[in-house]
Amino acid sequence: xxxxxxxxxxxxxxxxxIVVAGWLGQIMxxxxxxxxxxxxxxxxxxxxxRVFIAFRELYLLLAGFLSALRxxxxxxxxxxxxxxxxxxxxxxxxxxxxxxxxxEDCERCGRGLSDVQSAVMTLxxxxxxxxxxxxxxxxxxEQAPWTAGLIVTATVTISL
Length: 160
Known about the structure:
Elements: H1 10-28, H2 38-42, H3 50-54, H4 56-93, H5 95-98, H6 116-128, H7 134-143, H8 147-159
Helix pairs in contact: 4-6, 4-8
């Protein structure tokens, strides 16, 4: 009925792609591994997005959500950039102090700042997740009080 107008609608193209992928999956099953075509079955869920177009309020809600996702992605990238920066500084300045401390209750604490990856993971664990902040920081502060400025500044700039 629609003839050439049919392929101008993106939803119709999605439906056609799903049907063709299903046919190919049935035809080619005995010849080659077609497990990659299962992705197109999941694409059927995208048809539910038609509801968002039908109701203006839902469309505006989805558009606002997608707009906020862009900002959240940039904020996350900035946060991990700060974690990386402070991780490098902690390896250079705090690790020599931390490696001289013996930890009895924590097996990871002695190596928590030994390399940049461990330092970033430790900072993520303590600042963002809020898990066992004092396990490494308190013994380091007792050993070298001058690190308080470094630790507080790192905590404030990462958590902002």
